[in-house]
Structures are given as C-alpha cells and as structure tokens.
Amino acid sequence: MAPVLVLAERDATNGAVKKTTAELLTLARRLGEPAVVWIGEGSADALATLGEFGAETAYVAEGPEVTDHPVVPMVDVLASLVTELSPAAVLVPSSADGKEVAGRLAIRVGSGVITDAVDIDSNGVATQSVFGGSTVVHSTVTHGIPIYTVRPNSVAPEPAPTTCNAQPVDVAISDVAKTARVVERTVASKGGRPELTEAAVVVSGGRGVGGPEGFEVIEKLADSLGAAVGASRAATDAGWYPHQYQVGQTGKTVSPQLYIANGISGAIQHRAGMQTSKVVVVVNKDSEAPIFELADFGVVGDLFEVVPQLTEEIQSRSN
Fold first, then answer.
1. Domain 3-178 has what CATH class?
2. CA separation for the pair 292, 263 (Å, rounded)
3. What is the largest CA-CA distance in the chain?
4. Tens digits of per-residue pLDDT, 195-225?
5. Counting C-beta atoms within 10 Å of the first and last residue's C-beta, which end of the chain has fewer, N or C?
6. Contact present, 139 and 114 (Cβ < 8 Å)
7. What value does the mean pLDDT take over residues 21-35?
8. Which of 155, 183, 128, 113 has the alpha carbon at shortest distance from 27?
C-alpha cells in the first residue's frame, strides 16, 4: 500500500500535536498508509500521539535550516519525499501556511491541488463547499500526485493505534528557501478558550448584541460550553469585538460540531465562513432572518433573554 504523506501541525505554545493532524491521519488511512512529515523539534514527544492515529513512520526534518526560514523549507522537504516515495497523496492543513505549502509543492512536483476540502473518500474524491457555501463540489486531481488541504474539524479523529518510528530526513535546503529568514518569534497570548478555527463548539455574536458589552452574554455561554467565541463582520467592523475573531468570507472559516449564532442575520459573507458546521443553532428575534435557513434548531426571541437562560441551564447540568 502506497504511503500518504501528512504534514504535521504543532501548537506554537507547547509544541503539542494539533487536532488537525489527527484529523488528517484519519482521512489518510482511507487512501493508503499514513506517514507524517514532521518539521522542527519535538518529534520524540509526538510519536505516541502520531502512532495513536495510525502513523507508523514520522519523517523528521530538524535543524535551523528548516526552522529559521518560512514555508519554503517545508516545500523542499515534502518535494524530496514525494520524489523518493511516490505517495498516493499529500494532505496538508488548510491554514495560511498550509495553503502556501500546498500551492508551492503542486508547482514543484507538477501535481494538481485541491484546497479547503471538507471530506475525501477512499477513491480520492474531495468534497468542497464553494460559492459562499451555496454549492457542494466533488473534485478529483487528474494530474500527478493529489495534494489536498483540509479544513479543521471536517472529520472526527478516529484512533488506529500502532507504533510510530522516527526516520530522520536529510534534505539540502535550496538557496531560494534561505532568502527570507525568521529573526524573531512571539507566541500570541491565549486565554482559556480554544482556537477559533479548531474549536469543536463556536458561539458567535452579531449586530444583535447591540454593542461591546453585549458580548458578555456570548462569552459566558461560550465558557459554559468550553467553546470559542466568534463574531460577525458587522460586529467587528463596529469595533465591538476584535477582528481576529471574525467568522466569514473575509474572516476565518470554521467547521465546528456545534455553531451557535446569536443576533446574526446571516448575510452570505458570514454564512460562507460557517456553512459546513455540523449542527447550527440560531437565536434571533427576527423570524425572517436568512440565518434560519441554515438552522438545525432555531429560537425566535431576544438573545438577552434566551442566552442567559441557556447558560444557566448548561451550568446547572454540569455541576
């Protein structure tokens, strides 16, 4: 069975394996024998987690040549492995870096690339949500070794325990890769909430919260669920919530198991960023709001009455 290369993604704060890697390994098992490509330090601590989700081999590239330069060294490593191993496919997280890696790699090895897949079947057919989430597309790569970027939370990680062994990779990094150098790294401060694009539950607020203070009820509900907080473009443009939490076509794309939209009308721009959520709950006092078209469950009512009651009920059941 041909290998399927999975580019591992790590948490910048502690170096732990991100859930996106486990998701990619789950998909990779449908296509062949999953193998991880690990760039940078910390592979020894990650082997147990990688093995838990079916990776028998981790190709490890360490050292300043691959860590002190952005993106291109990862492409050099992947391109070398693709040439050597002729894998069945290459799977990459749909992050900003991941998409750049996938695009550069596709050009380097002469292959087709599919971005923002939300599923891949055993025949390599990818499912994508396009045109603001209004259309579902099934795509295949017809030239070269398929390269996919996959949205976080698109598939539930499924364990397939095995023993993962590290295999060092010695790749000559190109001069082009060294033309840009990372001179400093600052880890973004994080609160107790999960990362928006990786959260299994997202609670968002929109114009209906009425102002910055209105997000207090949104945050309390999110904290009761261990969820991330999101916001519509209207709310972030008004300065009610930081722009890095914007969900939508010009913000971040999320695909959680549960998405709770509060006071959000459901403009196409916002829907494009959360269309693939597994379950959508809507709270809005306007029964004609377009967001209800996506709702699995909807409440027509004032969010300042509904959301606190929901928070209280959740807290009472968790105590």
1. alpha beta
2. 11
3. 61
4. 898 899 999 999 999 999 999 999 999 999 9
5. C
6. yes
7. 97
8. 155
Q: Taking the model in full, what pTM does it have? A: 0.82
CB 117 within 8 A of CB 151: yes
CB atoms near residue 211 (< 10 Å)? 10
Q: How far apart are the first and last CA of the chain?
A: 49
Taking the C-alpha atoms of residue 198 and residue 10, their distance in angstroms, rounded to an integer, is: 12
The encoded tokens of residue 197 equal 């694009």
CB 64: neighbour CB atoms within 10 A?
11
Query: Where exactly are the structural domains of the chain?
Result: 3-178, 196-318
**301, two tokens:** 């009512």
Lowest mean pLDDT among 46-60, 97-111, 122-136, 220-234: 122-136
Quickly tell me which residue has 């998701």 as its tokens. Answer: 23
State the number of CA atoms in the 13 A half-sphere of 17 facing the CB. 27
Burial tier of 290 (Cβ tally within 10 Å: 0-12, 13-18, 19+): middle
Superfamily of domain 196-318: TPP-binding domain (3.40.50.1220)
